[in-house]
Amino acid sequence: MSGPQVTASALVVGRGGAAAAGPLDLRIAAGEALIVTGANGAGKSTLLRTLAGLLPPVAGRIDVAGATAPDGEVARSLAEIAHYVGHRNAMKPNISVGENLAFWRRYLGGGHGACADRPIAECLEALGLPDLSHLPHGYLSAGQQRRASLARLLLVARPVWILDEPTSALDAASQLRFAEIVEAHVAAGGLVVAATHQPLGLSAARTLDLTPAGSLVANAGRAVPAIDEAELAAAEGWL
Q1: Where are the chain's structural domains?
Q2: Which residues pair with 194 in a beta bridge?
Q3: CA dihedral defined by 63, 4, 233, 201, rounded to 10 degrees?
Q4: Which of these, 136, 204, 205, 196, lies nearest to 170 by C-alpha position?
Q5: 1-81+160-165+200-239 — its CATH code?
Q6: What is the pLDDT of residues 81-105, one digit of tens each?
């Protein structure tokens, strides 16, 4: 299947030069899903943030092939072709859901996504929400806020989805609906890397189990403690 290919070579991820996980050698291609597992502090979020370009690798490299950036040039990084969904919803609570999603459409270069030519309300409907686009995001329940945030995956077509605990706060029915959306993305040639404690129900997904929390990871000849992901998520604000 043609499409993007992501290769990580001798990749070590961490913060401030302190390693959290690695070295890792990975290859993920279009039409594949990789589920990253491991206890809290194993480095799952740090790995996904590194893939998304939010953190520099401690060591090693990440290469992308077979993908075109929104400007029509050959993509040189995952950040150019990927959606990233972190622990936080990345939605401003005091402005409407519609305004939030309109911002993401502009920021991500909208116009070619599955819902690009339809009202934002229809993208929300795909996540099982009624038309809540007029309400401030902060007025919604936790589960509704998460689903409204996930709607940006449909607003703009990007081949790679990097998802960090995407189903947090979702009920069982919403988890199933989202799993169907992700499955359809993979079946259409998309590529998914997800860290989750809850199974996404993806068929034939590969699993990467990171170093258990509390272990020590070699870093430039010394041993450093694994990073506490809960503290990291709190420190990184709205992402």
Answers
A1: 1-81+160-165+200-239
A2: 35, 163
A3: -140
A4: 196
A5: 3.40.50
A6: 899 999 889 999 999 999 999 999 8
Q: What's the pTM value of the predicted model, to 2 decimals? A: 0.82
Residue 144 pLDDT exceeds 60: yes
pLDDT, tens digit (0-9, with 9 covering 90-100), for 215-224:
333 333 333 3
Strand partners, 192: 33, 161
Give me the DSSP letters along the chain: --S-EEEEEEEEEEETTEEEEEEEEEEEETT-EEEEE-STTSSHHHHHHHHTTSS--SEEEEEEES-B-TTSSBP-SGGGTEEEE-SS----TTSBHHHHHHHHHHHHT-SSSTTTTS-HHHHHHHTT--S-TTSBGGGS-HHHHHHHHHTHHHHS--SEEEEESTTTT--HHHHHHHHHHHHHHHHTT-EEEEE-SS----TT-EEEEPPPTT-EEEETTEEEEPP-HHHHHHHTTT-
Largest CA distance in the chain: 55
